[in-house]
């Protein structure tokens, strides 16, 4: 079966799941969630950090390269720049460069990437200095499920990766959506992390701690009740979404 047909079938499956899944409201929140899931305390910012980039300089300093980002590399004293312009980071996080070979850059800051590449290039050429410029930021995709007007995958710009922006891109919550109880889910190294975001407090009380910074592949679930059963309401959709991403990325 061709890749195009696989993508079409899985897309149809995702749409079907999103349109037919009932969002129940059982007695206990998180009762049946998988044992490996980590429910984050409200004060714990080790996984979900507030989206609080203050300036372009701060953004550049803390920005981490990601798949589909396009970069250009400038090396002082290296006249032959062929192969160092418009380099796209692959889905595996690697780039292929002359002299340096295959190098993983995804997940690194610009400064960290410079250090890695300086060491790689330094085996063959003398490098007094190097600059790395991000010429195009790759798209990030987030899944927004539950009580929103357009549930499904939303694409966000790299500097707009936060809970409020994702819900807005999904055409906002329905009449029954509880923005005080937004469940933000991240799966990292096989562990599911879950934290609740109170977007109502972010909007009305300007509590910036409630609008989390998101990462590619994060999942948001907006309930219509204060009580949520992840096993029944969310996990089936996560499974469908994971299959969709595996076949279409």
TrEMBL record:
<keyword id="KW-0449">Lipoprotein</keyword>
<keyword id="KW-0998">Cell outer membrane</keyword>
<dbReference type="GO" id="GO:0015159">
    <property type="term" value="F:polysaccharide transmembrane transporter activity"/>
</dbReference>
<protein>
    <submittedName>
        <fullName>Polysaccharide export protein</fullName>
    </submittedName>
</protein>
<dbReference type="InterPro" id="IPR049712">
    <property type="entry name" value="Poly_export"/>
</dbReference>
<keyword id="KW-0625">Polysaccharide transport</keyword>
<dbReference type="Pfam" id="PF02563">
    <property type="entry name" value="Poly_export"/>
</dbReference>
<keyword id="KW-0762">Sugar transport</keyword>
<comment type="similarity">
    <text>Belongs to the BexD/CtrA/VexA family.</text>
</comment>
<dbReference type="GO" id="GO:0006811">
    <property type="term" value="P:monoatomic ion transport"/>
</dbReference>
<keyword id="KW-0564">Palmitate</keyword>
<keyword id="KW-1134">Transmembrane beta strand</keyword>
<dbReference type="Pfam" id="PF22461">
    <property type="entry name" value="SLBB_2"/>
</dbReference>
<feature type="domain" description="SLBB">
    <location>
        <begin position="141"/>
        <end position="222"/>
    </location>
</feature>
<feature type="domain" description="Polysaccharide export protein N-terminal">
    <location>
        <begin position="60"/>
        <end position="134"/>
    </location>
</feature>
<dbReference type="InterPro" id="IPR054765">
    <property type="entry name" value="SLBB_dom"/>
</dbReference>
<keyword id="KW-0732">Signal</keyword>
<dbReference type="GO" id="GO:0015288">
    <property type="term" value="F:porin activity"/>
</dbReference>
<dbReference type="InterPro" id="IPR003715">
    <property type="entry name" value="Poly_export_N"/>
</dbReference>
<keyword id="KW-0472">Membrane</keyword>
<keyword id="KW-0813">Transport</keyword>
<dbReference type="GO" id="GO:0009279">
    <property type="term" value="C:cell outer membrane"/>
</dbReference>
<keyword id="KW-0812">Transmembrane</keyword>
<keyword id="KW-0626">Porin</keyword>
<keyword id="KW-0406">Ion transport</keyword>
<dbReference type="GO" id="GO:0046930">
    <property type="term" value="C:pore complex"/>
</dbReference>
<feature type="signal peptide">
    <location>
        <begin position="1"/>
        <end position="24"/>
    </location>
</feature>
């Amino acid at each position: 079966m061709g890749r195009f047909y696989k993508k079409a079938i899985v897309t149809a499956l995702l749409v079907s799941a999103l349109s037919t899944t009932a969002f129940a409201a059982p007695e206990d929140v998180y009762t049946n969630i998988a044992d490996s899931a980590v429910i984050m305390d409200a004060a714990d910012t080790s996984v979900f950090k507030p989206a609080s980039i203050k300036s372009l300089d701060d953004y550049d300093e803390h920005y981490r390269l990601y798949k589909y980002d396009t970069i250009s590399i400038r090396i002082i004293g290296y006249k032959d720049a062929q192969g160092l312009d418009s380099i796209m980071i692959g889905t595996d996080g690697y780039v292929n460069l002359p002299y340096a070979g295959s190098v993983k850059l995804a997940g690194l800051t610009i400064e960290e990437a410079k250090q890695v590449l300086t060491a790689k290039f330094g085996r063959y050429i003398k490098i007094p200095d190097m600059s790395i410029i991000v010429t195009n930021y790759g798209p990030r995709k987030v899944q927004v499920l539950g009580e929103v007007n357009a549930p499904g995958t939303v694409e966000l710009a790299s500097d707009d990766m936060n809970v409020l922006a994702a819900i807005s891109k999904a055409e906002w919550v329905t009449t029954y959506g509880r923005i005080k109880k937004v469940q933000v889910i991240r799966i990292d190294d096989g562990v599911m992390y879950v934290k609740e975001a109170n977007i109502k407090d972010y909007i009305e009380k300007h509590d910036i701690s409630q609008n989390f910074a998101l990462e590619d592949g994060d999942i948001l679930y907006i309930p219509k009740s204060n009580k949520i059963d992840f096993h029944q309401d969310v996990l089936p959709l996560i499974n469908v979404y994971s299959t969709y991403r595996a076949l279409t990325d």
